[in-house]
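Progress note, sequence design subtask.
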C-alpha cells in the first residue's frame, strides 16, 4: 500500500509499504480522511531526525476485524482515538480515567503505518463508531476532543470574559465552545497575516480581535482591565502574557508543545499569588469525549467544515502539504482524502 513519510525540515515522500498481519484485538481500517496536525508540523519542522510515518486524526471504514474485537465488524464507519485509558489502572478505578496515560495507544504502534496511508492497524478499543458525518468532518473529531479538554480545563462559565490565545484549529473550536458555554465577551489573539483564521474567529463569535504582531497583549484595552479565563493554544512562551492579562481569580489553561529552551517560561509569581490565579495544563492523553464531540457536530454546536481550507488525495500529499504550509494567509486545516 501507499503511505506518506516525513523528515525534518519539511520533507515528505510517498512510499510503498507492507502491513503486518492483524493480532488479536486489532482491526484493519481503510483510511478515508486524515488531518495534518500541529504535532505533525513540529515533527516535520525539526523533531523528525529520520523518515517516519505520521498522521493520527483519521476516520475510515473497518476493512477487517481480527479476533477479540467484539462490537466491530467489516463495513463499520469509525473515527480513531489516539489513545484510551486503562480500566484496570488505580487512577481509573479511583474515578480519574483522565490520569491514565498508559492505556492502549495508536501512537506507540511502531510496526504500523499511521493516518497518512491507505490502511492502518488499530487496537479495537480506539475505534469509535459513528454515522451522519462526512469522513472529512469526522477526521477533525480528534482535535475537537483536544479543544474540548482545553475548554473543560479552563472551566468556562456564564458571564466570563475569555481570551483565546492562538486562532488555529484548536483555538477556533475552543472559541465556539466558549461561546456556547455562556462567555460574556470573547477576545481572539492571532497574527494579522493569518487572515482566514482571523476571519473565522469573528465568524465563530469573537467580539474583538487582537493582532499580536501589532500590539502587546498587556497593552490591549480589555473592557474590564483583563479577562477571567485564557485558553492558550499557542507556543508556551505566550503563557507569560496570558498571566499578565488575567483579572483576580483568573485561570490560564494551556496546551502546546515546544522543545529545549523554548519549553521554559517565566512569569511574575507575585501576580499569581496576590491575584489568586491558576495555571492549568491541558493534555488530551488519554483521548476522551469522542461521543460528545460526535453529538456536538451532528447538532451543529461546532463547525469543523469551515476549518478545512486545504484538501488533497493521498497520492498528491507531497504537493498538497507544500501548498498548505506555504499559504499562511489562508491555511487553517489540511485534510488528506482517500477515495
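Output:
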Amino acid at each position: 500500500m501507499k503511505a506518506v513519510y516525513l523528515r525534518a525540515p519539511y520533507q515528505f515522500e510517498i512510499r510503498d509499504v507492507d502491513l503486518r498481519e492483524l493480532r488479536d484485538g486489532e482491526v484493519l481500517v481503510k483510511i478515508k480522511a486524515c488531518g495534518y496536525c500541529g504535532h505533525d508540523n513540529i515533527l516535520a519542522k525539526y523533531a523528525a531526525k529520520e523518515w517516519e510515518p505520521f498522521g493520527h486524526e483519521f476516520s475510515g471504514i473497518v476493512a477487517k476485524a481480527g479476533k477479540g474485537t467484539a462490537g466491530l465488524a467489516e463495513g463499520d464507519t469509525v473515527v480513531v482515538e489516539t489513545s484510551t485509558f486503562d480500566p484496570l489502572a488505580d487512577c481509573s478505578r479511583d474515578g480519574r480515567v483522565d490520569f491514565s496515560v498508559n492505556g492502549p495507544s495508536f501512537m506507540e504502534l511502531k510496526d504500523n503505518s499511521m493516518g497518512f496511508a491507505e490502511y492502518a492497524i488499530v487496537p479495537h478499543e480506539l475505534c469509535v463508531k459513528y454515522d451522519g458525518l462526512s469522513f472529512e468532518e469526522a477526521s477533525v473529531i480528534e482535535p475537537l476532543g483536544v479543544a474540548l479538554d482545553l475548554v473543560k480545563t479552563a472551566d468556562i462559565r456564564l458571564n466570563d470574559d475569555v481570551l483565546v490565545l492562538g486562532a488555529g484549529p484548536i483555538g477556533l473550536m475552543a472559541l465556539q465552545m466558549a461561546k456556547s458555554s455562556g462567555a460574556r465577551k470573547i477576545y481572539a489573539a492571532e497574527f494579522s497575516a493569518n487572515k482566514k483564521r482571523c476571519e473565522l474567529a469573528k465568524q465563530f463569535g469573537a467580539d474583538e480581535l487582537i493582532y499580536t504582531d501589532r500590539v502587546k497583549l498587556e497593552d490591549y484595552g480589555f473592557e474590564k482591565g483583563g479577562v477571567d479565563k485564557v485558553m492558550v493554544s499557542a507556543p508556551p512562551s505566550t503563557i507569560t502574557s496570558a498571566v499578565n492579562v488575567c483579572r483576580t481569580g483568573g485561570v490560564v489553561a494551556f496546551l502546546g508543545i515546544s522543545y529545549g529552551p523554548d519549553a521554559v517560561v517565566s512569569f511574575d509569581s507575585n501576580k499569581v499569588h496576590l491575584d489568586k490565579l491558576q495555571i492549568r495544563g491541558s493534555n488530551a492523553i488519554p483521548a476522551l469525549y469522542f461521543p460528545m464531540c460526535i453529538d456536538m457536530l451532528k447538532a451543529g454546536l461546532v463547525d469543523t467544515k469551515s476549518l478545512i481550507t486545504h484538501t488533497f488525495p493521498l497520492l498528491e500529499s507531497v504537493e498538497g502539504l507544500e501548498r498548505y504550509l506555504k499559504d499562511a494567509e489562508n491555511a487553517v486545516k489540511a485534510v488528506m482524502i482517500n477515495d
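The first strand starts at residue 2 and ends at 7. Work on this subtask will continue into the next period as scheduled.
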